[in-house]
Amino acid sequence: MSVTEDMQDETAQAEARSEAESETSVTAPSRRVLLVWDAPNLDMGLGAILGGRPTAAHRPRFDALGRWLLGYTADLSAESGDADVSLEPEATVFTNIAPGSADVVRPWVEALRNVGFAVFAKPKIDDDSDVDSDMLEHIALRRREGLAAVLVASADGQAFRQPLEEIAREGTPVQVLGFREHASWALASDTLEFVDLEDIPGVFREPLPRIGLDSLPEQGAWLQPFRPLSSLLTARM
């Protein structure tokens, strides 16, 4: 064999090894375990339970929620038994920013990003500036890319019940996170699983002062309105 032929043979062998290494190094396909958090809706629900603005002891701890999501993802991965598909947790908080509130909200947004949550922030211009449609678009995008599970933290059954039940009927696990007082639509669903936020370890530093009609104290209790009377003036028809 000539020197030229020998060099050509070595080159061909090197190319073959490179192709084989490329094939074995291809990243395994991944599917997302998607968590979306409806901040305006849950803030209103938490305020109704507390009868006012939450203190530090009663604000949700997103680091605890993130650890719970990681554990849930690991459990799903173990149950699937498919080593060729990796499950990737993803969490996003959707929120409105009222005019003049950016400096107040900024530390909270930065804290969320610091523990691994993405944030979708939208100016609160009017009553139609809610984030429901943005959440649904994000869920639809991830659904096209491949979902292993979807978790929606919201009490807005009007916006989310139908699309979430559609996803669940396809065989994708769907959980609704929230407060049982405001999530009868999820509790009554045959296809959705409901998880009360207070049942997730560490999300709240102290127990919420929750009072239901089936657990009233002997002296009675005040049940605060879910929204002010003035909301009737701007209620959607």
Automatic annotation (TrEMBL):
GO MF: RNA nuclease activity
One Pfam family cited in the UniProt record for this chain: NYN
Domain NYN: 90-197
Annotated segments matching region Disordered: 1-26
Signal sequence extent: none
Protein's name according to its UniProt entry: NYN domain-containing protein
